[in-house]
Design brief:
The chain is an alpha/beta fold. It is 24% helix and 27% strand. Helix 8 links the parallel strand 12 (243-250) and strand 13 (301-309). Helix 3 packs across helix 4 (150-157), helix 8 (267-294) runs parallel beside helix 9 and helix 9 (328-343) runs parallel beside helix 10. The structure holds alpha-L-arabinofuranose.
Length: 506
């Protein structure tokens, strides 16, 4: 079947922030230790213990930001334990993730060094659940205050005279759950209090992100918006927070204990995963609509700072480490999310996939028994979509009903698309979620001229296909000749279960 669509090249949509392609690294399993950070004694190429092949792979994606140190871990993390000589840093138990000992060798200085190597902005999640206002306030001072002050002196004594720049600041994480089991009303008060004492030092400007809702909890968002709606007029420093977060994971299995395998899944499970992934649109639209009631000018951002697939851990691995493989199915989950992100870029200002290395829907898997580092199919979607960073979104208007199929009680639209333009180039992303049927798309390009296009495709023989140290390129992008432009019409053939990007000069 052919799907007809129109893109008006001269009708600008909202700007797609590069921060929609953000990342998340928690002290969880082998994400930080054994992923990003291998320690100063490692035989692998590293700088200050930070693994350089991982850094380079993420630089190649233009990684815009990195959220740290959690997740749930953030609300048990005490930053002063992670500064100073490593042999004097106290050990704690990571109660959330495997009950393992955390030696605090990766702390504030190491994280900021990692961000500098990556060329990424830090996004720090402060501890509201078990910390204090003073502790958070002093962490901000330690990181960002120049000149002479107690925290600036402490930072200098630990080897860093100049302050860092930190913009993104999280006021706790999942306050409705692991971040303190608070009610929305109680948390709103806490966020106001903590936010008040997170100061702007010098010319550093914090962008404070309050811990938002889980999935479809619109009442949480409504409460936070109601509690902060009027504060902008009252505080000379501005609002105590500037954005709300949202967490939504793509989970398919019937129960939390049985989320299904990351690699051994049926076609029915594949479609159920796609239905779950596509639900992100309903959720973002729903939370955005609640926010619109209080903030029509859209000055408060929505930040989806945890998203991605969550399957059963790989057999034989620590259940608390959340290590899962990553298949072509994960790649299509990511591509569908990005189309939605582009559509809601006027409210959605940041998103962070969970998590970057060795945890949940990772970009990168490292082998604990060798030097191998594997780029996952999800990594390749981030790479192929890089041209959307800070681009102007262009609406894709359908002229024919898109193909769909029934999946249980739901209807899954099986072709997903989005488009943008930047620096005189058009970029169109197209996903065919149908596991067996191809699709053909014709896009009438109006209001501009595109003479020729180049395309790339990410697909494989089966949706279960994935990359391993032994076969790292099983699912990798290839040049694709299934796209052409004639008389202002772009035609793209989409094989089953494929992701295609098409670009051309405008
Ligand atoms: O990403 C894993 C965990 O999922 C995070 O720590 C928590 O915020 C969420 O529940």
């Amino acid at each position: 079947m052919t799907i007809d669509a129109v893109v008006n090249l001269d009708l600008d949509g909202p700007r797609i922030s590069r921060h929609l392609y953000g990342h998340f690294a928690e002290h969880l399993g082998r994400c930080v230790y054994g992923g990003f950070y291998v320690g100063e004694d490692s035989a692998l190429a590293h700088e200050g213990g930070i693994r350089l092949d991982v850094v380079q792979a993420l630089r190649d994606l233009g990684i815009p930001n990195l959220r740290w140190p959690g997740g749930c871990f953030a609300d048990e993390y005490h930053w002063r334990d992670g500064i100073g000589p490593k042999d004097r840093r106290p050990v704690m138990v990571n109660t959330h993730w495997g009950g393992v000992e955390e030696n605090n060798h990766f702390g504030t200085h190491e994280f900021m060094a990692l961000c500098e190597l990556l060329g990424a902005e830090p996004y720090i999640s402060g501890n509201v659940g078990s910390g204090t206002v003073r502790e958070m306030s002093e962490w901000v001072e330690y990181l960002t205050r120049g000149g002479d002050s107690p925290m600036a002196r402490l930072r200098a004594a630990n080897g860093r005279a100049e302050p860092w720049r930190v913009r993104f600041w999280g006021l706790g994480n999942e306050a409705w759950g692991c971040g303190g089991n608070m009610t929305a009303e109680h948390y709103a008060q806490e966020a106001r209090r903590y936010g008040t004492y997170c100061r702007d030092h010098g010319d550093n400007r914090l962008y404070k992100i309050a811990a938002g809702a889980n999935g479809g909890d619109y009442a949480w968002t409504e409460t936070l918006m109601r509690q902060i709606g009027h504060l902008g007029c009252q505080h000379i420093d501005g609002t105590p927070y500037h954005a709300l977060s949202l967490h939504y994971y793509t989970i398919t299995g019937p129960t939390w204990e049985d989320k299904g395998s990351a690699t051994a899944f049926s076609t029915d499970e594949y479609y159920a995963t796609m239905v779950s992934a596509a639900r992100v649109e309903e959720l973002i639209a729903g939370h955005a609509a609640v926010m619109d009631c209080y903030d029509r000018a859209r000055t408060i951002g929505l930040v989806l700072d945890e998203w991605g697939t969550w399957f059963d851990v790989e057999p034989g691995t620590n259940p608390g480490f959340l290590y899962q493989q990553n298949t072509l199915r994960d790649a299509l989950v990511a591509s569908v999310h990005f189309d939605v992100f582009h559509r809601y870029a006027d409210r959605l200002v940041m998103a962070n996939i969970a998590q970057t290395v060795n945890v949940l829907q990772a970009m990168i898997l490292t082998d604990p028994d060798s030097d191998a580092m594997v780029r996952t199919p999800t990594y390749h979607v981030f790479a192929m979509n890089r041209g959307h960073h800070d681009a102007t979104s262009l609406r894709v208007d359908l002229r024919t009903a898109p193909p769909s199929r029934r999946v249980g009680d739901a209807t899954l639209t099986t072709v997903s698309m989005s488009a943008s333009r930047k620096d005189g180039r058009l970029l169109v992303s197209l996903s065919n979620l149908d596991a067996a049927e191809p699709a053909d798309v014709t896009i009438d390009l109006r209001g501009g001229t595109v003479e020729a296009v180049a395309a790339r495709i990410l697909t494989s023989g089966a949706v279960q296909d994935h990359n391993t140290p032994q076969a790292p390129e099983t699912v990798a992008p290839q040049p694709y000749d299934g796209a052409s432009v004639t008389g202002g019409k772009l035609s793209v053939h989409l094989p089953p279960h494929s992701f295609v990007t098409v670009s051309g000069a405008l």
